[in-house]
Amino acid sequence: MCQKANSLTYGILLCALLSLAATVRAQIPLDGNPGRPSPAHPSPALTPEMLGMPRTQIAFGDRALRLFNGRGTVSIRDKSLTGLQAVEFPPIDVRDYRFFLQFRETKANVLIQDIVPDVYDHMVETGGGLHPLGMNFLPGSPWVMLLQQAYWEPNAFFRTGTFHKQFGDRWISFAISTKTSVSAETDEIYMTVEIENREAEPLVFTTSPDQRAPDLSISVPGEAGKPGPVTRPDAFTIASDQIRITVVSDLVAQGKDGWRWEIPGHAKSKACFGIILQPASSPAPSVTAPDLAQHMERADRALRSRLQWAGETLPQVSTGDPAFDDLYRRCILSVLEARWERENFVVKPFYAVGAWVTSVVWDTSYASEMLSMLDPAGLRETVLTYVRKGLLKTSYIPWNGKTNDYWYAQSPFAEMRVIQDYLTQTGDTAFLNYSVDDATVFEWMKRMGRELEKRYARPDGLLDFGAGSEKMLEIRTDGYQHVVAATNGMAAAYFRQVAQWCRDRNDPDAAQFETWSKTLQDSMNQKLWDDQNGWFVNLYPDGSKHLVLSYHQFDLLDAGILSPKQSEAMISHIKEGEFLGPLGLYSISKADRVHWDLEDVDWGGGGQYTGEPLRLAESLYRSGHADLAWDLLNRCTRWTEHFPYIPQEIFADYFRSPEVEMELELDAASGVQAVVFGTFGLRPHLDGSLSVAPSYHKELGEAHLTGYKFRDHSYAVVLGPWDYEVFRDGKLATRTNYGKSIEFTPGGTLKD
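Above: the chain sequence. Below: its structure as tokens.
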């Protein structure tokens, strides 16, 4: 009886609230109130604090946990307070470099070291030596500081630790905290060390660096290294005939064995240290550097400025789903972590593929919508660099521009996607007329199309790229070779776009490219489409057909060549037991027992090249499969539970990134694109018009996107449970129900 009464009361209250909500909403016309201001920015610009993560939460091994500020990188050493490794400031690239600080307490003549990770490594690799947990009490074992906690932020690593031992009737007891960062101006690494003396008696240390490297040779792509003997000219320096690495400090008193550092009783003292990397021919620095604190402040400001620039240039997103927002922010960070700004690089800025300091157009094509918003000028120069180096000759462009002949069949099609994204966002169609060497960008795209047809076309129009799956995906089983549907479909779209550019210029070659496109598409439908499996097969020269259920084929969803039936059939495979995994996608469907394997994560089965599920989510939104897009994107939001930035690949079943691959990938930009152009439904068009067709999910709560800049206007989108609002230049343009697309003309006027 009471339960019934409570239910009735609840029902009356609910009806009243809904009625009130309807009344309030009815006061705002559905066609919009031009005077209503847009929502304020939902959050401040990106900051390091937003992106920080405890070391215990991060799934990366220590080599993969890096600090970066645009010029170079250093990795941390786990289990230590000051340990660093693997410096890369091209052409200085020393993977086996190791560094830590040690402190000799002068009164007791006790050497306190930071070598716990080295002892761990020795025991794991050899099974012998000192047990690392026996240090500080086993006879003859070293005295070591003990790590308590560590915390990562972009370009900052914080550690705290302790040392607490009795020597005779005297205690040496101190707390230690450190912060490490990298310069944005010079090839330098910084560390502040603060020591708190817990005892009344002063502590007096001789502080010195321990640096180790089996080889110190300049590393230049395309040139053979010349290793020379490694020397230690003094306590502060390690050197060869090519490289010098000097440790400096703002501690004034120094001797031949290190710096003198006195910490008064029951007091704290802070010192700064710098690791300066130089060619051996450069003048050696003084080991006393009183302005190191100012250097560190400038490094911090540079990092914050870079984050603020990206946070304010790109749309800002705030929803009721913290994991969704975190993925968006960390995808932005991942692109910034791949953005190099060095004077000795082939182009500045240089958008590396990720942790490898090489640029690859295939990977850039997963980021080109975001880069068109963030840095159109930088993307433009990147496109020109690819053209200059030859898209049919090489796919890897190292930082110095000295390419090799490794080539992906997808390179020209990826370049086409990058150019299309750039043109759509910027409207800079004159770019196609820009001259590169002896031809315009447009002519180069024509030349590549003709060359593709000349080299690889069969009489039926299909392109046979030959044997070797590494040209397509680098998977370890055969079957993904010769006439591959994914690359053929992209070629059809490529030819069609070149034909359109020809028509725009009254170029008579339009008919030829249109014919190639149509013939290729017709042959794909006739010879490659497998209606029973709802998938395209790959065709070998002997006529045999090979079914490989690779998610690479989902790239065709945006190519404009699929029939609705084909699109729906392919999308039907995105489900549990096939492509869907707890953390995203399997790169080979689990239904494909011939080709699936666990360890080949990015393209061979066990997980995903991280750009692929993010790109697919955007495609699913565009094609009207919002629920499936949300499901997929929601799985990917779990990545940020354990990865501070997005690696090249992640297993689909559990949190681990393979040590042999890259801890960072430019393709993470696809996450930004999935949110902006998928969830919030912003759809820019080449002619300057803009469509808005967002999709809502209850987990988003009230969701805000502000600051999308397109053709001299700024747009904001607010998603609510029932309908959505679109703002233009700070004023409400309209409010309408989901399922209805809003259209703006090329001039930014709302269409009726």
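The radius of gyration is 29 Å.
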